[in-house]
Amino acid sequence: MAYECELCGKIRQKAHKVSHSNIKTRKWQRPNLQSVRAVIGGQVKRIRACTRCIRSGKVIKAA
Questions:
Q1: 18: exposed, middle or buried (Cβ count in 10 Å: 0-12, 13-18, 19+)
Q2: How many helices (H) and strands (E) does the chain have?
Q3: Burial 2-12 (b: 16+ CB within 10 A, else e)
Q4: Please, which residues bridge with residue 32 across strands?
Q5: d(C-alpha 42, C-alpha 47), whole Å
C-alpha cells in the first residue's frame, strides 16, 4: 500500500463521517507520515515514517 509507515506498517483506517441527521458516509483516517532521512542498514535513505515511530526513537536520523 502506498500510504503506510515503512517501519511499523501503520496504514489508513476506514471510518464514518456522521452528520446531524445520522447519515453515515465513508471517510479515511490517515496516519501522520513524515518524510525523514534515516540510517537504514548503515546507509542513509529517505523513508516515510509516522510521527509515533519518530518520537519513540525507532528512526535514527541521519546527520
A1: exposed
A2: 1, 4
A3: eebbbbeebee
A4: none
A5: 14
All structural domains of the chain: 1-63 (2.30.170.40)
Predicted confidence at residue 50, as pLDDT, reads 97
pLDDT, tens digit, 9 for 90 and up, residues 3-61? 899 999 999 999 999 999 999 999 999 999 999 999 999 999 999 999 999 999 999 99
Q: Are 49 and 5 a contacting pair, CB within 8 Å?
A: yes
Query: % helix / strand / coil in the chain, to the nearest 5?
Result: 10, 45, 45
Strands (E), the chain: 13-18, 24-29, 33-40, 43-50
